[in-house]
Amino acid sequence: MTAREVLAGTTGPAAAEKPVVGRGTQLLAHGGLILFSLLATLPTLLIIMNSFKDRLSIFSHPFALPTPSTFTLEGYQTVATSANFALFFLNSLTVTVGSLLLIVLTSSMAAFALSEYRFRLNTLTGLYLSIGIMVPIRLGTVGILNLMVDLHLVNTLWALILVYTAQGIPLAVFVLTSFMRGVPRDLKEAARIDGASEYRIYGLILPLVRPALGAVTAISMIPIWNDLWFPLILAPGEKTKTVVLGASAFLGQFVNDYNAVLAALTLAIVPVVLLYVIFSRQLVSGITGGALK
């Protein structure tokens, strides 16, 4: 084979087709992802749009945007006068933020210990914590309820915070341990030589695993905000209702008032969507970093 034939084989029509096939595959993949995103977000967008429309327009033109003639805040007015959603939001925010702070703090300290120190039960402890990922916490609902009754924590937000903290720790420890093991040991040894304590070293490592902390926060946040099971069992009181429980009770009362129903669903959905958007970049960075490791 001559040099001209070699060059022709690398620059001819066959070679020129390869990038085209690659672009076609990428376009097909992106098209599939866009279609899936539209299918996933369309129900939420329809709920939000129709919550600002009158009842006749909801049924006659469900896919149309609100216009000056169809726009109404009747549903939100009903929600404001019939349910204390401000308190429900405050309860959900308190439970979610409190649980996330405890999850991040306890799981990061446990992950630091498992990744940094070698002791006899190191592997066994990691496996024991991993069981919490496979076994749903709802299987222990009766025992949890009895424990909260003995501790006099029923109808308090502390009951929900403690349960959600226990629920989120296993997965958080599993994710953070792999990231902390990827931190160069030379950095920690240099800090020890400089006289830094173990708590100081732990504080220095946290910024290095920030994507993992963001991923843990995003993964743990949505189940806590959307949970209905434990608020219904542990904190069903009017002063301790979360927004999901409050919205469920409201829907049962105003099941035929579609403006109010859509308004209540919008108020329950929008906050968690906004929080997820805020932490989505950290979630993607954490998942990508874990895959690369």
How would you characterize this protein structure?
- The protein has 293 residues and is mainly alpha-helical.
- Helix content is 78%, strand content 0%.
- The protein has 14 helices and no strands.
- The chain has helices spanning 3-11, 13-50, 55-60, 74-82, 85-116, 122-134, 141-150, 157-181, 185-193, 198-205, 210-226, 229-234, 243-253, 258-292.
- Helix 5 (85-116) packs parallel to helix 8 and helix 11 runs antiparallel to helix 14 (258-292).
- The two termini are 44 Å apart.
**Which range does the strand content fall in?**
under 5%
Question: Major sheet: size, sense and barrel closure?
Answer: none
Shape category: globular
Order of helices and strands: HHHHHHHHHHHHHH
Structural class: mainly alpha
Backbone CA Rg = 26 Å
Task: Give unreliable regions as ranges.
Answer: 1-8, 10-21
Helix content: over 70%
User: How many DSSP helices?
Assistant: 14
Distance between the termini: 44 Å
What's the total number of strands? Answer: 0
- State mean pLDDT (0 to 100 scale): 82
Domain ABC transmembrane type-1: 89-279
InterPro entries: MetI-like, MetI-like_sf
Pfam families: BPD_transp_1
Protein name: Carbohydrate ABC transporter permease
